[in-house]
Amino acid sequence: MQRIVVLAGGIGGARFLRGLRSAVPDAEITVVGNTGDDIHLFGLKVCPDLDTVMYTLGGGIHEEQGWGRAEETFVVKEELAAYGVGPEWFGLGDRDFATHIVRTQMISAGYPLSAVTEALCARWQPGVRLLPMTDDRVETHVLIDDPDAEGGADGKAARKAVHFQEYWVRLRASVDAHAVVPVGADSAKPAPGVLEAVAEADTVLFPPSNPVVSIGTILAVPGIREAIADAGVPVVGLSPIVGDAPVRGMADKVLAAVGVETSAAAVAAHYGSGLLDGWLVDTVDAGTVAAVEEAGIRCRAVPLLMRDEQATAEMARQALELAEEVRA
Ligand code: GDP
Ligand code: CA
């Protein structure tokens, strides 16, 4: 049986996984999910990316929105607001709240996040093994200018770090990100099963997830990048950048923070040939294929818009085909 490991963020990862699962229904798919986006709200532990994967593959996702539950209501949020209790900018619906309550209760009882995730997946049956990248706490922070503070002695504006969710959801990445820091990653350990899955994998895939705050954060957990590079199996990625812009969201802002141009070729170079063996770019970026190959990464241009499950399954087949080419 074919074993595939996929590093995944939220929407981009989840939608790709749905296509992959339908392209290779018999494969054993292990998903290493990003937990750098996790946030504590109202005393609850919220794991947006793990939940997006779980709900998307489990049939509970709000399809148009791409995150949160279908047929959601917001009574709890309204009641909290009536008490003046926020944040109001993070959309937690009633159905979603139940997930976070169960998760928080289990964590309080002493279960690691990996065990909690497995328990939640027992309900959703995502058809993949979903592992958090780590059981330890990692929180991505973004360094921005602080408009409220006096400038420093050097005349430069003072800066402050905000939680990634505050940057992404409240500020909608409207200000420049000077740095992206996965706080806690340095001392985090890969969750049980992560390194084993990589070691046993036939193929490792990077879906079109955010290269900095999704896949970059997973790779920042000591041991994971090394395990993938040393696994000796094809590592193939799909570009989240199509025609010099993210297909969805504001990935350009966090790419700029790490000094990477917003282009399919630049993202491939950012991962580097030491990690990546193959890279798929969209057909509109066919002109960059040669440059990526010169950098030592095998590259093909194929349609990369996840319009529906069929189109996405075809992307997954192309990625696996490229992996076979690399292997041969
Ligand atoms: P998030 O955690 O919800 O932000 O999701 P991910 O990190 O998994 O994925 C976000 C990335 O998915 C964004 O940078 C988008 O550019 C990319 N993306 C979304 N839809 C598509 C698509 O249809 N095709 C491609 N190639 N990328 C996409
Ligand atoms: Ca995310």
UniProtKB/TrEMBL annotation:
Keywords: Magnesium, Transferase. Signal peptide: none annotated. It is an enzyme of class 2 (transferase). Gene3D superfamilies: CofD-like domain, CofD-like domains. Its EC number is 2.7.8.28. One of its GO terms (molecular function) is LPPG:FO 2-phospho-L-lactate transferase activity. 7,8-didemethyl-8-hydroxy-5-deazariboflavin binds at residue 51. InterPro entries: CofD, CofD-like_dom_sf, FbiA/CofD. Its cofactor is Mg(2+). Pathway: Cofactor biosynthesis; coenzyme F420 biosynthesis. It catalyses: enolpyruvoyl-2-diphospho-5'-guanosine + 7,8-didemethyl-8-hydroxy-5-deazariboflavin = dehydro coenzyme F420-0 + GMP + H(+). Pfam families: CofD. The keyword Magnesium applies. The keyword Transferase applies. HAMAP family: CofD (MF_01257). Belongs to the CofD family. NCBIfam families: F420_cofD. Catalyzes the transfer of the phosphoenolpyruvate moiety from enoylpyruvoyl-2-diphospho-5'-guanosine (EPPG) to 7,8-didemethyl-8-hydroxy-5-deazariboflavin (FO) with the formation of dehydro coenzyme F420-0 and GMP. Homodimer. This is Phosphoenolpyruvate transferase. It comes from Streptomyces spirodelae.
